[in-house]
Amino acid sequence: MTRKKKEEKEPQKIPMYDFQGEKVVEIETKRLRSFVGHPYKVLDDESMRLLTDSIRKNGIITPLIVMPTREGNYQIISGHRRKYCADVLGLEKVPVIIRTMPDEDSIISMVDSNLQRQSITYSEKAYAYKMKNEAMKRKTGKRRKTADGKLDHFRGESKRTVEIISDQCGDSPRQITRYIRLTYLIPELMEKLDIGELSFNPAVDLAFLSEEEQRWVLDAMDFAQAAPSLSQTHRIRDMSRMGTISEESVKEILIEPKKKEAGQITFSKDQLRKYFPGDYSPEQIKIEILEILDQIFK
User: I need a surface site. Which of 51, 163, 220, 285 has the fewest CB within 10 A?
Assistant: First the structure.
């Protein structure tokens, strides 16, 4: 009878140094894996090139945060951009902090490590909020199902988790719920939102439509060479809710001339900038003002 060889344990890694009270070790880049479902884009843009130049000159100052996988590799929780730069520079090893934690905690940590970045797209924030919301509900064991068996992210127990996220991230619970709803957009409309060809509030309306209805809107936008206004998406959503929507009716709404709403009030940028962070876009300022008014008059 042959005896089975005992599995060889990986030799214990000797810490290089301490970083904020945690041990830092070196891991081969080929053993690092992206976080499953990572919602943030890793783009070869100007900020990435600046980060690459910094790492070339100074090395990786802030270690990556990783967790072990069953296959013997490591999943990145924080540091996807640094890993990308390391690959560009041909670095074979990078400094990391290894943490072991439940899946839900790793998702929350991954989302939080990127959520406060200055340059974050609507889609990144939407999917990040969705991942964190679902992880928190799994963690607390409060997942409610709708009549058709799907998870309900917008009612009941979900309210408590979005309030917790709101306390941590700054957006109101209602705004977080609206971001999560954006994840129901078809990819083409989500891209238009990200690049500024579709505004946030109309996009939230469109996210309540079926995939087929959204494609009607997309085709109508291409035909009319225009994005729908909020009043137009309200009408489209109402038609969808009442079952009277059609491809032709959507096109008719999109090609009609947009009327300037009576009694429109405008403010200059200088009048509003002192009340909001400097990196807020006009759309974000508008959303925040509406949120504040909702809180005052609800």
Answer: 163
